[in-house]
Amino acid sequence: MPSRELSARKRIAMVAHDNKKKDLIEWAEFNKVILAKHELLATGTTGRLLEDQLDRPVKKLLSGPLGGDQQIGAMIASGEIDILIFFWDPMEAQPHDSDVKALLRVAIAWNCPVACDRSTADFILTSPLLNQPYSVNIPDYSGYLKRKID
Asked: Which residues does the chain have with pLDDT short of 50?
């Protein structure tokens, strides 16, 4: 099975819906020391808030509804992001729900660890695999790409 190698320093994308931004910022502040060992990327406002709170650079992409979710999805597909922390709000419909679903689908398709809540994010950040090189199995989609469509 094809694979790609992750270094000990992970590239972590962080996204949060409006009602979850406060929770993500609090989680990031609590985990500031661990996150300092990794490269952080985030969509628009979330990136600015993280940068201010953590007092360190965060690569800021577009706002989620303006294409930031799609940028992160493309970066996952091209192997430029190792972990996705996405605090999304299950209780409120988002105007860009299709982008959210596409982002999660791409992350799963490329075997990228995803945390959609604080508990799962805690498990990922406390995993012994976080701070060491790791080989990610990449699914083989060659059969899918060669299929005939009638």
From this structure: none
Contact present, 39 and 49 (Cβ < 8 Å): no
Q: Is the dihedral of CA 89, 31, 9, 6 positive or negative?
A: negative
6-36 b/e with 16+ CB inside 10 Å = b? Answer: beeebbbbbbbbeebbebbbebbeebeeebe
Cβ neighbour number for residue 57 with a 10 Å cutoff: 11
At 140 the pLDDT is 85
pLDDT at 150: 63
From 146, 108, 132, 115, select the one nearest 15 (Cα to Cα): 115
Provide the residue ranges of all domains of the chain, joining segments of one domain with +. Answer: 9-128+136-146
pTM for the structure as a whole:
0.92
Q: How many CA atoms lie within 13 A of 38 on its CB side?
A: 26
Specify the pLDDT at position 94: 62
Active-site residue numbers? 69
Topology annotation, domain 9-128+136-146: Rossmann fold (3.40.50)
